[in-house]
Amino acid sequence: MRTRSTASGGRRRRERTAGAQSCRRVDYTHLRNPFISQGAFSEDRIEAVHRTALRVIQELGIRVLLPEGRKRFATAGALVDEDSRMVRIGADIVEAALATAPRSFTLKGAVAKRDQLIEPGVLFFTAGAGAPHVTDLERGRRPGTLSDYRELIRLTQCFDAFAMFSAVVEPQDVPIHIRHYATMAPQLTLGDKPPWIFARGTPQVTDGFEMIRLARGLSEEDFKANPWCATVINTNSPRQLDVPMCQGIIDFAEAGQMSIITPFCLAGAMAPITIAGAMTLQHAEALTGITLAQIVTPGAPVLYGSFLSNVDMKSGSPAFGTPEQFKATLGSGQLARRIGLPWRSAAGSAANVNDAQAANENQMSLWGAVLAGATNIKHAAGWLEGGLTVSYEKLITDLEALQIVAELCTAPQADTDALGFDAIAEVEPGGHFFSSRQTMARYRSAFYEPLVADWSNFGTWTENGARTANQRATAIWKKKLEDFVSPVTDPAIGEALNAFIDRRTREGGAPPES
Amino acid sequence: MRTRSTASGGRRRRERTAGAQSCRRVDYTHLRNPFISQGAFSEDRIEAVHRTALRVIQELGIRVLLPEGRKRFATAGALVDEDSRMVRIGADIVEAALATAPRSFTLKGAVAKRDQLIEPGVLFFTAGAGAPHVTDLERGRRPGTLSDYRELIRLTQCFDAFAMFSAVVEPQDVPIHIRHYATMAPQLTLGDKPPWIFARGTPQVTDGFEMIRLARGLSEEDFKANPWCATVINTNSPRQLDVPMCQGIIDFAEAGQMSIITPFCLAGAMAPITIAGAMTLQHAEALTGITLAQIVTPGAPVLYGSFLSNVDMKSGSPAFGTPEQFKATLGSGQLARRIGLPWRSAAGSAANVNDAQAANENQMSLWGAVLAGATNIKHAAGWLEGGLTVSYEKLITDLEALQIVAELCTAPQADTDALGFDAIAEVEPGGHFFSSRQTMARYRSAFYEPLVADWSNFGTWTENGARTANQRATAIWKKKLEDFVSPVTDPAIGEALNAFIDRRTREGGAPPES
After folding, report:
1. How near does any CA of chain B get to the CA of A425, in Å?
2. Which domains does chain A have, with CATH numbers?
3. What is the distance in angstroms between the Cα of A501 and the nearest Cα belonging to chain B?
4. What is the pTM of this model?
5. Cα B296 to the chain's mean position, in Å?
6. Which residues on neighbouring strands pair with residue B400, listed in sequence order?
7. Cis (ω within 30 of 0) for the bond into B511?
8. Which residue of chain A is at minimal alpha-carbon distance from B445?
């Protein structure tokens, strides 16, 4: 009987396939967000936030600490009071800037595969960044070092779900006047993704640009023609743009490089306690930064940025993955769509250890950003303590969620064979599909293969050492580092960079400016 | 200067508010899904799945093991082959059933607050159910007992985010012929939410109905007028309806009680390996069950049910939180909307311990269900090992995600005060909002207060014992049990139930039927 032979064939097949090598090919680059963007406010309320933000900029003004910044704004017609350093910018100036800010551009990698199209509808992730500390199960929590930084550059290079590099950890063992060399070089020699630069004054920024030109073999003109790197500009909320951030906008815009203008608005602390009010402040500050970039260079590549959460009213600490953050993120997406620009949001966690809280917060903020239609989701993996620590294990466990979101970007098959009538007809009631023709044709590539999830049953899992997700993640990152091979094979690149760094170090490097 | 005085006022305020009691009121009952439902397939492909499922039912047929079930189908005009027990149901019969299945009804609780409206657009959660084992940090993993069951009934009563009871754990220390008394009584004496009944044969089901009538003081007529309890009908995929499940559909439909018709389709095992094919099988089986309920009693309250995931091709184990499950859930929501019925989906995790994998899987499947527009999300908290174990800690940590989703069901304020122009005008550039008028008016109730998340900084957290989410969750469930007071205050209810149970036990109870 067909059922019986199918059944025994099925058992054999199951044994054979257990442990069988998969031939599944995945590509987590160049994603487009598959979801309909969701909002938290009616369109007229979003318009009201936008209009109120314009009033904040025009009537209340923004304090701009850099004289050159005030001068640029004044040249464009803004009202500048040099005593108070307040800049009041007319709505017409902002609207003109929004008209020149590009809707679509390409952030260039070392190879075409790593070019990242940036426009509304695109989705790309970057790892948690800017942490002073790192932690892992074996070495514990500690101040970040260059060795940690280099490991984390290798790890973020390994996984395609990270589309560009980020300054994962601050290497505190490197003196600050030469630290930017130490952080740029590995981005150019250990990987091929677009690198990251902190805007800590013109000398450091121009050093970074020069290193990119050296590594990529670009003339100044080639470099200016496309963005090859990115920085984040954080305003000093409320309503203040400090010296290095303002200089960063100018430097990046002049060089045609990408600025992500991101007020960090904590509702109830540096921003109004209401979600709508915090959005108004964020929008006012982001528009100010975007406007400056466009005044400097019309068409300069910018991202609208949102990193809006609330504080814990008990401790004053930033909280992540909260319903307020979720709603604010949805609202920020509406604002980004209102002005038509690509934009960045963020995930993250305030937990102190990579446990259920940490996973839940990261994923909750991730879903807020995905559903808000964020173009770039920063800090998408690894953040503990609201960004004070990056966890090696969490980088891996969060990455699983990112890979699953990446899988959701491809539509399931629904042709006649996939609809399954013939497959269902082939299997008797109460039987199984292990050895059906359809299964046999597809089983090696049908399903996502987990990175860190262990689906074995309790008995098997216990026999195998009862390893938690963090323990398995440890094995994964260690193996990845062990097997790491840089995609950069031309020794001339490292040599040119080293020669540059040696010279600049002899010249005294470039301390951060503020 | 204003900035300074604001700053020092802010510090004082922050100290005063640290640890201040909140006056935030929350209501996590009667939620409506705030999101635009998302799909994974084009509308024409959903129509193709629906049509293919109708062909499966009509051309291939479903094996119905209960003679009474076959008789009912035959009476309605289906083709029945008694030798093979196959039932072939014409599309016209299915369409007629879909026309009488109610779009909207109310599942009744003991008090009006617990009445749960059930219709498309509503969202309600139930805890993980049906587990043979329980686990907690202090007592370890063990077979479930009545004592565990009663604790878990208390815990699911405590939190409003659970709208009805579920059979969280199987109390294996109670003999099976009287177990249904032991599981029903606590649902009626320790809480006021709608209870749950397993369909394990007519005698057990009618015992359960009688206990509800006794506890709620209902005549047979009152009872039949509304659903007061629910059951899940799992088909024996593929294409088979076994004796107790078929009898359950008949018993619940005759009594006007709610059936959730849920094929458990594991793609690649008991269902086709393709998502679309597994959906076709699920849809065929769910439509068969819904049709039987409507043949028995036109207008009988039913939910369309989906519990579709894939197996791990390495071990054959069910996997949860996978991209395939997510897409299948979105597709199932599209099918539910195609037939216009409220429906249930599920969250869950296949992890063996409540770690980052467990949290990520539960939340990933939760988001699939939320975005698919599921009316009821079952197994929304607590499941480990794909449902073989319910974890006390995980019940709490997952609940945090449910509460946050519940918070997302309310829109943020966006009136003129909330838009924040005045608040922003009040605070100097670079200042803070801790003591702004808007903050002072709102700080006690502005933000969600976490259940288990700890947002204190690393130093404070370490000083406080470096407790993980699981350890904090343990303290939470223990405290909840310690403080538990049943909302059922009338001693006559317990007495009536005890008298009934004593009599039925003397009569021999009611063993499960199959």
Report:
1. 7
2. 103-408 (3.20.20.480)
3. 36
4. 0.95
5. 26
6. none
7. no
8. A313
